[in-house]
Automatic annotation (TrEMBL), chain A:
Location of this chain's protein in the cell: Membrane; Mitochondrion inner membrane
EC number, UniProt record: 7.1.1.2
Family: Belongs to the complex I subunit 1 family.
Protein name (Swiss-Prot/TrEMBL): NADH-ubiquinone oxidoreductase chain 1
PROSITE patterns: COMPLEX1_ND1_1 (PS00667), COMPLEX1_ND1_2 (PS00668)
Keyword ATP-binding in record: no
InterPro entries: NADH_UbQ_OxRdtase_su1/FPO, NADH_UbQ_OxRdtase_su1_CS
Any one Pfam family match given in the protein's UniProt record, by short name: NADHdh
Record's GO cellular component terms: mitochondrial inner membrane
Alphabetical keyword list: Membrane, Mitochondrion, NAD, Transmembrane, Transmembrane helix, Ubiquinone
Record flagged with keyword Transmembrane: yes
TrEMBL record, chain B:
Annotated protein name in UniProt: NADH-ubiquinone oxidoreductase chain 3
Lineage summary: Eukaryota, Metazoa, Spiralia, Lophotrochozoa, Mollusca
Reactions this protein catalyses: a ubiquinone + NADH + 5 H(+)(in) = a ubiquinol + NAD(+) + 4 H(+)(out)
Gene Ontology CC: one annotated term: mitochondrial membrane
Entry-linked InterPro entries: NADH_UbQ/plastoQ_OxRdtase_su3, NDAH_ubi_oxred_su3_sf
Origin species: Mactra antiquata
Entry keyword set: Electron transport, Membrane, Mitochondrion, NAD, Respiratory chain, Translocase, Transmembrane, Transmembrane helix, Transport, Ubiquinone
Enzyme class: translocase
Stated family: Belongs to the complex I subunit 3 family.
Length: 323, 123
């Protein structure tokens, strides 16, 4: 290869890398901003549910509260427990954050630079892997509260994962592929069957993200802050961002799976999609504001004895309907 | 092209990984100096000194639960292929295949009932 050919190759490579970098930066920036605003919305919504105002001092009506909190958290001192090295202490939040945000690889927008054909499987893999992050966070720092919180979180999420994936596959049975974008542009669902499936899915989403009424991980009166009790400052910021990003992703999947009418068009469909995502995320907040906490043994019974057989039955029924 | 080696998804994953490590490092660099203090080094237990290590034997139920999870996760793996092929090649599948599928689910439900009977699902 001559010199000019090499030069052209270099330029092409640089251009490609730049393209990838810009698309990644834009996706991450937008997701982090939206998660920050979601945190504000949650605090505002919980305030409204309880007839109080929520945060309203920072900037206009407290809109920038999450940004201010973030800056504050990153400035806090990072204190390490004596029993472990800095590296292992920092590893847990990093894994949690990575798992939560790498999910946005399958985010189905029409402007995306890449399209992941097995996005649903990727989602399942990553959500299984995020258990390791929780485990590292809770188990490594030699604290009883954190240990109990992590154990509860792991047992809860692996129990509900089987149920969740069965419901997920039942829904994608009608799509016939594991491409999330195809799920978005596939308009089929407005039957009684899908309504039942939606209820099951929403329960699974609430339990999988450890949200109220299934928030046993940080039952405030019992375990203080669950598995993240030893973390403050930056580690806590990463864990909180990961948690809320998971909720956003779950509501996105709900929108894709059940409310996809009108989402197949190019720009208008994107707008409808975003509105649904915001609405369903807000539904998570409302559920937290209204439901009392469940009981842990009942939660496990509910999963293994009621919901799992029900979802398996739903899958068979869906297969019959589909063929 | 050189870019084709660099998968777009892989690039995004690497980017997120670098970002998360970077955020952690930033918090360590920007954070205030730690004032060393004995109470900050031990685990938090609502103001009490921890009596013993938290690495104690733990409830066996969680272990049984993890085993059950393994079994049912295999079931999920079986479903993956079925779900993918149903819309596309189902018509060409023989009726025996459908029968096997329902048999599979029947056995699975039977296993679940057995476990519930046995009491390994009781919490």
């Amino acid at each position: 290869m001559n010199f000019e050919g090499q030069q052209i190759l270099w330029v092409q490579t640089l251009w490609g890398v730049l393209h990838l970098l810009i698309s990644s930066v834009v996706v991450m920036l937008l997701m982090m901003i939206s998660v920050a605003f979601f945190i504000v919305i949650e605090r505002k919504g919980l305030g409204m549910v309880q007839l109080r105002q929520g945060p309203n001092k920072v900037s206009v009506k407290g809109i920038l509260q999450a940004v201010a909190d973030g800056v504050k958290l990153f400035k806090k001192e990072v204190s390490f427990p004596v029993c472990l090295s800095h590296f292992t202490f920092a590893l847990g939040p990093v894994i949690c954050f990575f798992c939560a945000y790498s999910l946005y690889l399958v985010f189905p927008n029409s402007f995306g630079s890449n399209r992941f054909e097995l996005g649903v499987l990727f989602f399942l893999c990553i959500s299984s892997f995020s258990v390791y992050g929780v485990f590292l966070v809770g188990w490594l720092c030699d604290s009883r509260y954190a240990f109990l919180g992590a154990m509860r979180a792991i047992a809860q999420s692996i129990s509900y994962e089987v149920f969740l994936s069965t419901v997920l596959f039942t829904s994608f049975l009608f799509v016939g592929s594991y491409d999330v974008f195809q799920g978005r542009s596939n308009e089929f669902f407005t039957s009684v069957f899908s309504l039942g499936l939606l209820m099951l899915w929403f329960i699974a989403a609430l339990a999988e993200t450890n949200r109220a009424p299934f928030d046993f991980v940080e039952g405030e009166s019992e375990l203080v802050a669950g598995y993240m009790v030893e973390y403050g400052g930056g580690g806590f910021a990463l864990l909180a961002l990961a948690e809320y990003s998971n909720i956003m992703f779950m509501s996105m999947m709900t929108g894709v799976m059940f409310f996809n009418s009108g989402m197949s068009s190019f720009l208008f469909g994107d707008i409808i999609f975003s509105v649904w995502v915001v609405f369903i995320s807000y539904l998570f907040v409302l559920v937290r504001g209204t439901m009392p906490r469940y009981r842990y043994d009942l939660l496990m019974d509910l999963c293994w004895k009621i919901l799992l057989p029900l979802s398996l039955g739903m899958f068979v029924l869906g297969a019959v309907i589909c063929c | 092209m050189g870019v084709s080696l660099m998968n777009e998804g892989l690039f995004f994953l690497c980017f997120v990984l670098v970002l998360s490590i970077g955020l952690m490092l930033v918090s360590m660099v920007l954070g205030q100096r730690v004032r060393r203090n004995r109470d900050k080094l031990v685990a938090f237990e609502c103001g009490f000194d921890p009596m013993s290590s938290s690495r104690t034997p733990f409830s066996f139920r969680f272990f049984v639960l993890a085993l059950l999870f393994l079994i049912f996760d295999v079931e999920v793996v079986m479903i993956i292929a079925f779900c993918y092929s149903l819309k596309t090649v189902f018509l060409s599948l023989s009726s025996m295949t459908v029968l096997y599928f329902f048999l599979f689910f029947f056995i699975l439900l039977l296993g679940l009932v057995h476990e519930a009977n046995e009491g390994s699902l009781d919490w």
